[in-house]
Structure formats: structure tokens, C-alpha cells
Amino acid sequence: MIQDNPITVESIDALAKKGWYVQFKSLCSSLKGGIVENKILLKENLSPYERDKTLFHELVHIHYPTYLSCKSERALSLFTELQIEAITEWLGRKARADHLLLREAIKSFELEPQVYDQASYRAFRIVKEQLAFPFAQDIIYSQLPLLMD
């Protein structure tokens, strides 16, 4: 079910083409994101990592509405709400760690690219100042053009 239908670059692009968009809102203190109609709500002033992690959490809910939505009777017949959120968080973090998916999500939803870890470093254009990151020192300069495509 879930493993047969992974989140892909194409599925992220398709959401944006269907009119899904990100809106930043002032949300209650315990919420970082949510979904309303075709809007992905993200809490204002999240750090870049929290913004992207929350975006992917919501993308998982959208991508798997039958199995990972607390509004789905099918999902609630299989899992508790806590289990749904835990699975969603794990899948969202796994997808966000894929630099190609991260790049597509940020581009498709017109968000500002931010570099804060290895996945985001690989996802976005490398500038000289970013080469100071510890994980960047292992990159061979001949590979730089591949990362910047």
C-alpha cells in the first residue's frame, strides 16, 4: 500500500499543478502545520528545518489520505491517531532527507531554499561560504556540478 506508492518528484509537482500551495499562518502553540482545502498551512517563523520537516509531514497526509489521515475512517480502523501521526512523521522525515524531493518541494511551493543539513546542502546550489560545513569537506570538487543541476 504505502511502499507501492512512494512520494516522488512527480507527485510533489502534481500537487502544485493541482493548485496546492503553502500559506504561513499564526497557529496555536502546539501546531506547526495543517491542511485546509488545497492549502498547506505552516506556522509562521519556523526555523528552516522545522518548516521543511512540517511541509513533508503535511505532504505525507495529502499523499496517503486513506491510510494516514485522522479524518479517514479506514485509517482510524487500522491505527490510533497517535500511530497515524508517528507513521506520518517518520515517512515525512524520510522523504525530506531525499535531496531531490526536498529540492522539488521547495521549488514547487515557491519557498526560499535554506541550507541547514546534508540533504538541504545537496538539494540547493552550493556557494563558497557553505563549503565550511563539516559534511561538505568530503565532497570532491569534481562532483560539484552534479549537485548544482
Detailed description of the structure:
The protein is mainly α. The protein has a domain at 9-112: Arc Repressor Mutant, subunit A (Orthogonal Bundle). Helices cover 45% and strands 9% of the residues. The protein is built from seven helices and three strands, in the order αβββαααααα. Strands 1-3-2 form a three-stranded mixed sheet, covered by helices on one side. Strand 2 (33-36) and strand 3 form a beta hairpin. Helix 2 crosses helix 4 (81-96). The longest helix is centred in the middle third of the chain and has 16 residues, at 48-63. The protein is globular, with a radius of gyration of 16 Å.
Give me the side-by-side strand order of the main sheet: 1-3-2
CATH topological fold name of the domain at 9-112:
Arc Repressor Mutant, subunit A
What's the end-to-end separation, in Å?
32 Å
Mean pLDDT: 86
What best-fitting shape do the alpha-carbon axes yield? globular
Roughly how much helix do the residues carry, as a percent range? Answer: 40-55%
Per DSSP E runs of 2 or more residues, the count of β-strands stands at 3
Order of helices and strands: HEEEHHHHHH
Individual helix count: 7
Rg, nearest Å: 16 Å
